[in-house]
Write a structure and sequence with these properties.
With 506 residues, this protein is α/β, with parallel strands linked by helices. It is 40% helix and 13% strand. It contains 17 helices and 15 strands. A hairpin with a 3-residue loop joins strand 2 and strand 3.
Length: 506
């Protein structure tokens, strides 16, 4: 005969904030069964007695008992009461010798062993040229941002209980729509804009929304590895499409896989090579997308910074068929800890994107959105961009001029005048990986071009960030970089002219 429970204790103080009493009781009883505190064969008190003993309503106790029975933890019979099953349905103790690790754990562990281009590059402990991740933080108007934040904080309670807009703070979306229309030629309404924590979150959501395992998708080669990681995680088949001086070769993409579900592009400032996609190529890719029903993801990560002409209008502004999804971020424009970006979606895709996003994330931090909105609408954002264009242009000029002087015969710096980084094409016979390691040994932080390739041979070059360094730091960095590259030189000076001509295509 089953023995009645006598020592099991419950305390409502253990209930988590926001947890219903019914859920708490079920979880407590289930945990006691699985841990052995309630042993097999033990009879639970009658629901009325149980409720009286623990100060609960009988209805809550009956509901918890019914859930336990439905999940196989207990059995119940009229006249005999409720008792703990000998072996709860679905619960099998693991055999420590013969049990196998679940496939999903093995897959996750194997993923950890795969090279991660954004994790395993050399990152120095100090702020050394030519680190790419930072803009010119010393030039950011932190006092203005602080005053706006303080003003909003003082009025915090007034909008604390306002209904949340899961697309993002509406005045910010309105400000972004106005800014994109005037500066990038993007055609959209605020309702087509969703605020995200950054481009990578947007790519993760879009990959899960738009692609199924085995679906082919075009990627620039070399190209932004964050997109290839997002596509790979959903099992898509990545089709590497080469780039040349006009950007991604659409004809080659069609030859490789005309029926691709979509393409990821950085048309304004190709990552990492730096060229701008030509108007002819833009029309080609739009024609292909409209003909095949494919999507185009346009990453506009730093297009605001062009120094010899006005920023190239966005591809989205040429789109007549709703093919283009436009991504942008404020991280590079303002400061890295501001994890705010945005997605401009075709109207028909907005609800689906929202539904997919809600699986993992309900919203971004709204206080940051409110402060950013005030920063934009107060005119501070526009003034900051105009000032930074002048500063970055001067720093890039110093890098190009210093490169001619210090890196002659070792590397040639690209003449593309845009963005927050540039390419130094190697002329000393070293591979990209060798040059990156040599630079790190001389306390110089770079990123090798081969980290961005899919099938393409190593382009033999380094990416040099210049935005965060003044002219003096740039010259000192070039001198150390020259020492590193000269020490690892593997070619004779007389053949460098041939290598220069080979890299002129970029």
């Amino acid at each position: 005969m089953a023995k009645a429970v006598s020592s099991f204790e419950l305390s409502l103080n253990d209930r988590q904030h926001g947890q219903s009493i019914g859920d708490w009781l079920y979880q407590e009883l289930r945990a006691a069964i699985l841990s052995g505190r309630l042993r097999p064969g033990t009879r639970l008190p009658a629901s009325r007695e149980f409720a009286h003993r623990h100060g609960l309503s009988r209805g809550i106790v009956v509901s918890a008992f019914e859930r336990l029975q439905a999940h196989g933890y207990v059995s119940s019979r009229v006249g005999s009461g409720t008792w703990i099953n000998d072996r709860p349905t679905g619960f099998r103790p693991r055999d420590p010798v013969h049990s196998k690790t679940p496939h999903y754990i093995e897959r996750a562990k194997s993923d950890l062993k795969r090279p991660k281009p954004f994790v395993d590059w050399v990152s120095l402990d100090t702020h050394q040229p030519f680190r790419m991740r930072d803009p010119a933080l010393a030039e950011f108007p932190a006092d203005v941002w602080g005053r706006i934040a303080a003003k909003r904080a003082r009025r915090f309670r007034s909008w604390l209980h306002e209904e949340e807009d899961r697309k993002g703070f509406k005045p910010l979306r309105e400000a972004i729509a106005h800014y994109l229309a005037s500066s990038r030629g993007v055609r959209c309404s605020p309702d087509q804009i969703l605020i995200v924590s950054g481009v990578q979150q947007a790519l993760d959501i879009l990959a899960r929304l738009l692609l199924k395992p085995g679906d082919p998708v075009w990627m620039e080669d070399p190209g932004y590895f964050g997109a290839s990681i997002a596509f790979d995680r959903v099992g898509a088949k990545i089709i590497p499409v080469p780039v040349d001086e006009q950007g991604l070769s659409v004809s080659e993409g069609i030859r490789l896989c005309e029926t691709a579900k979509g393409v990821f592009l950085t048309p304004a400032h190709q990552c990492p090579m730096g060229m701008t996609m030509s108007l002819g190529r833009r029309r080609e890719v739009l024609d292909w997308a409209s003909r095949t029903g494919s999507f185009i993801i346009e990453d506009d990560y730093d297009s605001e910074y062009r120094f010899d002409e006005r920023p190239t209008p966005a591809l989205q502004g040429l789109d007549e068929h709703g093919s283009v999804i436009f991504l942008g971020t404020f991280t590079k424009l303002l400061f890295p800890s501001l994890r705010l970006g945005y997605v401009v979606l075709p109207q028909d895709l907005v609800d689906a994107f929202m539904s997919t996003r809600l699986v993992t994330d309900l919203h971004t931090l709204e206080l940051d959105q409110v402060i950013l909105c005030d920063f934009i609408t107060g005119g501070h954002f526009g003034r900051h961009l105009r000032r930074m264009r002048e500063i970055y242009a001067a720093r890039l000029d110093a890098l190009i001029a210093g490169g001619r002087r210090h890196l002659y015969g070792l590397a040639r710096i690209s003449d593309v005048r845009a963005g927050l980084y540039t390419v130094a094409f190697l002329q000393n016979g070293m591979t990209s990986h060798q040059a990156e390691a040599a630079a790190a040994a001389h306390n110089i932080e770079t990123r090798s071009l081969d980290r961005f390739t899919l099938e393409r041979p190593d382009p033999r070059g380094l990416l040099l960030g210049f935005a965060a360094f003044d002219e003096v730091a740039i010259q000192r960095g070039l001198i150390r970089l020259a020492e590193a590259l000269d020490k690892g030189r593997q070619t004779k000076p007389e053949i460098t002219a041939k290598m220069i001509r080979r890299h002129d295509q970029y």
